[in-house]
Design goal:
alpha+beta; 37% helix; YaeB-like fold; 99 residues
Length: 99
């Protein structure tokens, strides 16, 4: 399956990477690489991540980045993966997950 990023997910990534680049450009590059690798893994195994129980539609899943404190929320569509949100784990629960 192919991943498609929502505008919100692209905005999340832009914010995260911009903040990291201002402090540590190497860390920003590493996080970006980890996001790409994680999404590529999800494209191969879309149902491998845990489902978000609070999501009413039931098809939203969340996968953590390896080594970095971020979570990627996505949903499995008929023919693609829709990346919905990228969130730092120190933030409160994502209200979008309540559907």
């Amino acid at each position: 399956m192919k991943a498609v990023y929502t505008q919100g997910a692209l905005s999340d990534l832009d914010d995260i990477l911009s903040r990291l680049k201002s402090v540590n450009p190497l860390a920003a590059a590493a996080v970006e690489h980890s996001v790409r690798a994680t999404v590529a893994r999800v494209e191969q195994w879309p149902r491998s991540a845990r489902a978000v129980a609070q999501w009413k539609k039931g098809n939203v899943r969340v996968v953590p980045l390896v080594r970095y404190p971020y979570m990627i929320f996505y949903q499995v569509m008929d023919e693609w993966i829709e990346v919905l949100h990228v969130r730092h784990t120190s933030r409160g629960p994502w209200k979008g997950a309540l559907g």
